[in-house]
């Protein structure tokens, strides 16, 4: 299977979690599927949430038929069935996180004395991932070739960023590659993967690395009601996997890039 591979990194990143904001806005530990779709959509010029909102508001304004309402932003409508794989780098796949504090002094932003609103955001520091986009039936005709053209030739319709426009994205080392199916039983998976694949109860840690195990609920889809996140537990670990825990669905999403085993989510 053909795939587009590139390195995605930046000085910082912020992928906001929508469920916690009492003290600070927290970030997901890695770029998630929806954020990556948004980044790819920006590169090839697909509309986002703002364009979806304006389009639907125009329908309401002119009292047009609601059946033509846009359920999803354009980037998600086009890319929602795409297969992507995310390989974290850094210290055992973890990136440092730090709280950044901003002062909003426009006056109407806060009811506090002085009208100053303190905004706290948790940022990832120097994140780096290898990203794979599969050329299969998950993408409409022509979309994969457009992605290849833009990314291989360092083009973009809109500036790609890592969660917010405070965090410019660097896309480097793009290459069109051929992925192969595994010829033997898989022991380790080098990318984010479904948590349904269990660690082997008597498995080993790869090489001489210290054991690491990351697990987090991360967005993998949007719902139709309000475009809220649909989450799934994803795992990144250097622990040997249990082949008996893999479903047919899991096996179909495993591919080899030379010695690297990747899982498409």
Write the layout of secondary structure elements.
Blueprint: E1 2-9, E2 12-13, H1 33-44, H2 49-61, H3 74-79, E3 84-88, E4 97-104, E5 117-125, E6 128-134, H4 143-152, E7 170-178, E8 193-194, E9 213-222, E10 229-237, H5 248-252, E11 254-257, E12 260-263
Antiparallel strand pairs: 1-6, 1-7, 2-5, 3-6, 4-5, 8-10, 9-10, 11-12
Organism: Fontibacillus panacisegetis
InterPro entries: CRISPR-assoc_prot_Cas5_HALMA (IPR013421), CRISPR-assoc_prot_Cas5_N (IPR013422)
GO biological process, one term: defense response to virus
What does it look like?
It is a single chain. With 265 residues, the protein is α+β, with helices and mostly antiparallel strands. It has one domain (2-263): Alpha-Beta Plaits, CATH 3.30.70. Helix content is 17%, strand content 29%. It has 5 helices and 12 strands. The protein has helices at 33-44, 49-61, 74-79, 143-152, 248-252, and strands at 2-9, 12-13, 84-88, 97-104, 117-125, 128-134, 170-178, 193-194, 213-222, 229-237, 254-257, 260-263. It has a 4-stranded antiparallel β-sheet with strand order 3-6-1-7, covered by helices on one side. A 3-stranded antiparallel β-sheet has the order 2-5-4, with no helix packed on it. The longest helix has 13 residues, at 49-61. The model has no long low-confidence stretch (mean pLDDT 92). Keywords: Antiviral defense.
